[in-house]
Write a structure and sequence with these properties.
Layout (H helix, E strand, L loop, with lengths): L3 H6 L5 H22 L6 E4 L12 H21 L2 E4 L16 H16 L1
Parallel strand pairs: 1-2
Length: 118
């Protein structure tokens, strides 16, 4: 579920640029495991959407975070790995617009458990 900080701290980055970075990361990770003779199972999780708040002052950042769902879905299909769209879960966040509230953490955990047992 990486990518939120990229969008948050680099306003010039788009969802597509973050996805390109994620692809390079995943390919390096897979390559290392192949070299080591291991077999890993990857699941790409699109991040929960940013919301306006103390850390998120731009609607543009919110829109870019929403675009991550589709970008990551396409990347997972391209790489043949599992995909989960946490952006669809409407997770409550704190005043900063980024971090999960207590209720949000509980809801995220419930959703992940459901996702992993399917």
């Amino acid at each position: 579920m990486l990518g939120t900080n990229d969008l948050l701290h680099n306003p010039q980055l788009t969802a597509e640029a973050v996805t390109d970075r994620m692809e390079r990361f995943l390919r390096k990770l897979a390559e290392r495991e192949e070299i080591a003779g291991g077999k890993i199972q990857l699941r790409l999780i699109s991040p929960v959407h940013l919301r306006r708040g103390q850390w998120v002052e731009s609607d543009e950042r919110c829109r870019e975070s929403e675009k991550m769902d589709d970008c990551y879905r396409k990347l997972a299909a391209k790489m043949g790995i599992a995909f989960t769209c946490a952006g669809e879960w409407d997770i409550p966040v704190l005043f900063d617009g980024v971090h999960f509230s207590e209720e949000g953490n509980a809801k995220f955990a419930e959703c992940m458990v459901r996702e992993m047992v399917r």
